[in-house]
Design a protein that fits this description.
Elements: E1 10-16, H1 19-24, E2 34-37, E3 43-44, E4 49-56, E5 61-63, H2 66-69, H3 71-74, E6 86-91, H4 96-105, H5 121-127, E7 130-131, E8 134-135, E9 140-147, E10 152-157, E11 179-188, H6 201-206, H7 222-236, E12 244-248, E13 254-256, H8 257-271, E14 280-281, E15 286-288, H9 291-297, E16 304-305, E17 308-310, E18 317-320, H10 327-345, E19 354-355
Parallel strand pairs: 1-4, 2-4, 3-19
Antiparallel strand pairs: 5-6, 6-11, 7-8, 9-10, 9-11, 12-18, 13-15, 14-15, 16-17, 17-18
Helix pairs in contact: 4-7
Length: 356
């Protein structure tokens, strides 16, 4: 139940198949603490869990009535080029990549860039997963939850979810664990909306065409982009069923422009005046620098420490290299990486993975 492959136990483990089963759980009587997991793909268990682990198996994908969901678009004349959003309700226990696959086959745009991210739909709304220039908040309309404290169902519009970089109100320590996601409504589109500006994604997509002119855009489909992204991810990332990992271990740091200029100046002195540090300019004047680049510059790519290692194709990923790594080995490697990045760049890395 955890993709890192940590050999740990929980005092109690419970799965439920429906909202009705969820309501029947007596939360006040559960062994504490209570942890709700999805696919176990963003977790590092640091030892045995002394409380209760819950897991949703609420599994459905349903297209809502488009006109009923968007009444304004039903009462106006629409040109053939105008498409209303397609609202899709998805159970929290659906594997997120299965949802991406379903959307691509339906010809619906919005989640194709998020293909092959491990985990489940409920956890995606908590974590605000993201990849290749898209975050799940970009397509979420509403998150439906069960409030275990008030014992009632509640909903959060996307504007109420407090979404940030790999963050949401559901991760706030004051309410963490209170709300159990039951299903999420996504706003997808039948109108072609490819987002290819992240990194070398556009080149990878257009490499599927012989011609690289504007006419190629008519051949773009969510299924094609999904296929390309899966290929990229499979080439860079370990398959958890083969080599245990929790996905991207660290968040990409966001630094002021002044600090980025210092980082780039030092890099040019080391690699030459033409060297360009990979980065992404943010609207607020801050700069996001890939943690993978920093980790590699510190010489960690492919290095092992006991049973743990830095993945040799993507240094943002720490792996259970031997299959028998202890949590302490992963944590020790994490700390040494953070220290070396801090010493070299003056930047503090923060884990994306939850330590339990």
């Amino acid at each position: 139940m955890n993709t890192f492959g940590m050999k740990v136990k929980a005092r109690c483990f419970m799965e439920y198949d429906s909202v009705a089963d969820l309501v029947d759980i007596e939360f006040s009587e559960l062994a504490r603490p209570v942890l709700h997991i999805g696919g176990g793909s963003n977790l590092l268990f640091t030892g045995d869990f002394k409380g209760t682990v819950l897991h949703s198996k609420i599994n459905f994908i349903e297209i809502l009535d488009e006109c009923h969901s968007e009444p304004s678009s039903c009462h106006s004349e629409r040109s053939e080029e105008s498409f209303p959003p397609v609202l899709v309700s998805v159970g929290a226990g659906v594997v997120f990549d299965d949802f991406c696959d379903w959307a691509a086959k339906e010809g619906l745009w919005g989640v194709e860039n998020l293909s092959y991210i491990p985990g489940e739909v409920g956890a995606s709304a908590v974590q605000n997963i993201g990849a290749y220039g898209v975050e799940v908040k970009d397509v979420i309309r509403t998150v439906y939850c069960y409030d275990t404290l008030e014992e009632e169902f509640v909903k959060f519009d996307v504007s109420e979810c407090g979404y940030g970089y790999r963050d949401s109100i559901f991760k706030n320590p004051e309410v963490k664990g209170r709300y159990v996601v039951t299903h999420v409504v996504f706003a997808l589109s039948r109108e072609a909306q490819p987002k290819l500006d992240y990194g070398h994604l556009k080149d990878a997509v257009y490499s599927h065409f012989e011609r690289k002119d504007n006419s190629d855009e008519n051949a773009l489909t969510p299924a094609l982009i999904r296929k390309v992204i899966i290929k990229i991810r499979q080439e860079k990332l370990p398959e958890p069923s083969v080599v245990g990992s929790a996905g991207s271990f660290f968040k990409n740091p966001v630094v002021p422009m002044e600090q980025f200029i210092k980082i780039e100046t030092a890099a040019k002195e080391e690699f030459g005046s033409d060297y360009k540090v990979p980065h992404y300019d943010l609207p607020d004047g801050m700069v996001k620098v890939p943690a993978a680049w920093m980790i590699e510059q510190c010489g960690w790519k492919g290095r092992r420490s006991g049973g743990a290692a830095v993945w040799d194709k993507q240094p943002l990923v720490l792996v259970n290299f031997t299959g028998d790594a202890y949590p302490e080995e992963i944590i020790g490697l994490e700390r040494r990486i953070i220290e070396s990045v801090k010493n070299k760049f003056g930047v503090g890395l923060h884990p994306e993975v939850d330590h339990i």
